[in-house]
Write a structure and sequence with these properties.
This protein is α/β, with parallel strands linked by helices. Helix content is 19%, strand content 28%.
Length: 352
């Protein structure tokens, strides 16, 4: 079946886009999708839906303060969104300005430090390469002068509460410019409950880039190319997955970022390769999942690559029906919204 981007559109009333998180992390709703059947639950019900010997795999990336405002050396206003910090003095970014600066031109950010645009970057040249002009490093400057990069569909500027609630409670490795939002529902008490029930936990790191919000610019999804993201799978996580497989347990990805990393490193026997790598895996209906058995995720944007991913995991028709149900039942959508627990259905072909 040849699918187009329009095949992944759906009507979404704007008032269902969550602008703020639930009062408590576990206070959101949970839609359990089991093939054609959906069950309305609360996220607090999750421990009862798992069993001893299951393995939850979390992404422990930490969101950095990646948004800057400043001026070009020609005087025009500019907004910078870091895509990734390459090293202490180099970064890749998106630039919003009336006219993009030319290669070699400078910008002063946060009225505090200077950078130079050193060229284009990214698969399609749709990002910009930056280098520091002054002494210092991007990691420290981001923490000191940057702003928390809330998603474009959240209409308020980052507030004090966002500094906490747009990070997972287990965030450890700085580098993301968007949160792995399925993990925002977990608090320390729930993690303790899960472990007490014999449900195991493991961690990997995938630094989510700002490109996750970029719209697709093709008609046929087979023509789309994903931006690349860094990930790392520790030996302890690979060992936990192998042990879970051997004991007949289920590997449950917390979020599409965890799933993408696991499937990128996956072997035919359902185990994973350890170490660091880059992934541009694009998962669409027909993909054969090697590692992940169940997926916890939020609701995704119309026409997005993540909606294509969950359609591959739970079935295209099943996801369309589940999303229609969620809209009718007034679920809250996107980063600060409600969650889904998806059971896997699949068909045997490769990822694009």
């Amino acid at each position: 079946m040849s699918l187009t981007v329009d095949d992944f559109d759906f009507p979404l009333p704007p008032e269902l886009i969550a602008q703020h998180p639930a009062a408590e992390r576990r206070g959101s709703r949970l839609l359990h999708v089991c093939g054609e059947h959906v069950v309305d639950r609360r996220f607090a019900d999750l421990p009862a839906l798992l069993k001893a010997g299951d393995l939850l795999v979390f992404n422990d990336t930490r969101v950095i303060k990646a948004r800057f405002f400043g001026k070009k050396d020609t005087g025009g206003q500019v907004e910078i969104m870091l895509e990734r910090i390459v090293d202490a003095t180099h970064a890749i970014c998106q630039i919003r300005a009336s006219k993009a600066p030319k290669t070699g031109r400078g910008m002063r950010l946060a009225d505090a430090f200077d950078v130079r645009m050193s060229g284009r970057a990214g698969t399609d040249g749709d990002f910009f390469a930056l280098e520091l002009v002054d002494a210092g490093n991007f990691w420290e400057l981001a923490e000191q002068y940057g702003k928390l990069p809330l998603p474009p569909y959240i209409e308020h500027p980052a507030e004090g509460a966002d500094e906490t609630r747009y990070q997972t409670v287990y965030a450890r490795e700085p580098g993301a410019v968007a949160a792995p939002t399925a993990g925002l529902h977990f608090d320390e008490a729930m993690l303790d409950t899960l472990r007490a029930q014999g449900i195991n936990t493991a961690f990997l790191t995938l630094h989510v880039g700002a490109g996750t919000y970029r719209p697709m610019r093709v008609e046929q999804i087979a023509d789309h190319r994903m931006h690349s993201e860094r990930f790392e799978i520790p030996a302890a996580t690979a060992e936990a997955i192998a042990a879970t497989r051997a004991a007949g347990g289920r590997v449950i990805a917390v979020g599409t970022t965890s799933l993408r990393a696991l499937e990128s490193a996956g072997k035919a026997d359902g185990t994973v390769q350890t170490g660091s790598a880059e992934t541009s895996i694009f998962i669409t209906p027909g993909y054969r999942f090697k590692v992940v058995d169940r997926l916890i995720t939020n609701f995704h944007l119309p026409k997005s690559t993540l909606l294509m991913l969950v359609s591959a995991f739970a079935g295209y028709a099943n996801i369309r029906a589940a999303y229609a149900h969620a809209v009718a039942e007034r679920y809250r959508f996107f980063s600060y919204g409600d969650a889904m627990l998806l059971e896997k259905t699949g068909q045997p072909t490769d990822a694009i």
